[in-house]
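Give me C-alpha cells for this 192-residue protein.
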Amino acid sequence: AQAELLAGDLAGARRRLETMLARLEASGVPVSLMQGYLHGMLGELAALRGDRAALAAAYGEADVLRESDDPADVGCYRWLGLLADRFAGEQVAGPLADSVAQAFSMVGAHHEWFRWIYPDALATARSEGRDDVTTQLLTLVEERPAGAFPPFVRAQAARYRGLHSADSGDLAGAEAPLASAIGEFERMAFPY
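Here you go.
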C-alpha cells in the first residue's frame, strides 16, 4: 500500500488497505494496533482525496493509536486529528510544525511518520500564508547535511523552497529549487 501511495495510485492503495483490514478483522486475532495503523493509512488517503467524511471515520477507527506506547503511533493519531481540524476550517500550520519537530526528535527523518507529515506541514503552512512556519520547516532540512534526510524529504524541501520563492515574487530564485525537486522526484520515480 505504501508503494501504491508513493506511486500516486490512491485507489489501489485504498483497495489494498481495505483488503488487509478485512482479513485482519476476519482472523479474530487481537491486532488492534495494526488495525489502528491501517485505519490511520486510510485516513491519510482520505485526506489526500479531500474526503472529509472518510477522514473522520478513519480517525475514529484509529483511536487505539492514541493509547499506544509507541510515540510514533500517538504522533500519527495526533496528525490525523490535525488533518480533520484543517478540513473543518481550523488553522493548524503551527501545531503541524510542532508535530514535525516532535517526529524528528523522537523517530528521525527516515521514519514514515516524518516523511508523511513534513510535506503536509509545508503545504498547510503555505495554504495558510504562514511564511514563518514555512521558513522554520525549510530550515530544519536545509541546515543539515544531505545524508540527514531521505531524498524524498530533500526533494519536498526543494519543491517548497521554490514555491515559497515564487509566492514571494522571486521567480528567478524559484527556478533552481523547483528544477532540483523535479529531477529528484523523477530519479526516485515518484509522482510530483
